[in-house]
Amino acid sequence: MTDRFAVTADMMTVADALARLEARLAPAVAAEELRLHDALGRILAEDVVSAANVPPHDNSAVDGWAFRRADLPADGCLPVVGRVAAGHPLDGPLPKGGAVRIFTGAPLPEGADTVAMQEDCRDQGQSVVLPIRLAEGDNARSAGEDISRGSVVLHAGSRLRPQELGVAAATGRASVKVYRRLKAAVFSTGDEIRDPGTELPPGCIYDTNRFTAAGLLRALGAEVTDLGILPDRFETIKAALAEAAASHQLILTSGGVSVGDEDHVKPAVLAQGSLDFWRLAIKPGRPVALGEVAGTPFVGLPGNPVAVMVTFMLIARPMVLRLMGAARSDLPRYPVEAGFAFRHKPGRREYLRARLAHMDGRLVAAKFPSDGSGVLTSMTWSDGLVDIPEERGDIAPGEMVDFLSYADMMR
């Protein structure tokens, strides 16, 4: 079996990891045709090409009177020869030397090229006095001004937000071809792990990572199967992995892939696939395990809850989006002012949990007091991560830093 994830470097930068993922992964889901009403949040599997101009005809941008600018006399007075409302065009072209009452969005009669706003006009019943300062084309919108026939308005690989659905509808499309939801399986392992809401015996802890990971996957649009908590038994884990691989396009877990006597995930994966550890030069985050189980991609995230979220956002998120057919997964970076001092040793990239605040017109990042990767409440306190690159040294208050928003990471 070809190992898509094998690497030889001892330590890998985030940029190198993302480049490897981009090169080695392809969409793992088929396409389907969905009505626009059902396509919100899906990823386009085709370019949407407009079959029509939008708007389909020249129309008025305001309520007022439409006329031919060349017909306007020095006194601005023209006879009113008709009325045009949206959906009710003038029957025939505009008579020479006349004006028509018109409303916003109504089609301009043939021959009309300018519209005067009603606030600037004097209605005299059978005639209207128009402002003579208007230039030809004022307050008139051209056919195809928004979208021209034959143009690509939406690109394959983009996620459909409400505004994309509106654009597709404007071109006359009632349905679009999108990728099916990625089917992902999530599980936890450990005899000490218990589900919330159950009794907690001595030496046991409640499972958090499974809920965090499943939530992150669902936020991206994946369909998640919760396999629950698997006991520390090789055969049970092996069977669960085989079953998940047969009906899913991704398997994701956290912890359990070390070399301890009770870490059975690693041998269970290797018994039916491949597994490699990517030693990422980041903090928080220990090695991320990537591999395959019977051809289905497998991701093993670190066990600490903060490291789970950080490595998911940096590595698993772009991997998931790639498998889902998304064309891009890069995150916007926002320059903000550091409201803290931080000692940083060059060579490893660090992600600091931070909250933003406006101070005298400046956007300032406050750092969470603790850097511990087990403090999950730091993720609810913060708005995102301050990214400290490998080559950068200590950070002083007032220096500019890059900020990655959780809101961007979850879409």
From TrEMBL:
Q: Which residues cross the membrane?
A: none
Q: Which metal ions or organic cofactors does this protein require, according to UniProt?
A: Mg(2+)
The record's section on InterPro entries has:
MoaB/Mog-like_dom_sf (IPR036425), MoaB/Mog_dom (IPR001453), MoCF_biosynth_CS (IPR008284), MoeA-like (IPR038987), MoeA_C_domain_IV (IPR005111), MoeA_C_domain_IV_sf (IPR036688), MoeA_linker/N (IPR005110), MoeA_linker/N_sf (IPR036135)
| One Pfam family, short name | MoeA_C
Question: Which catalytic reaction applies to this protein?
Answer: adenylyl-molybdopterin + molybdate = Mo-molybdopterin + AMP + H(+)
Main function:
Catalyzes the insertion of molybdate into adenylated molybdopterin with the concomitant release of AMP.
This chain belongs to the protein called Molybdopterin molybdenumtransferase
- What are the leading ranks of the lineage? Bacteria, Pseudomonadati, Pseudomonadota, Alphaproteobacteria, Rhodospirillales
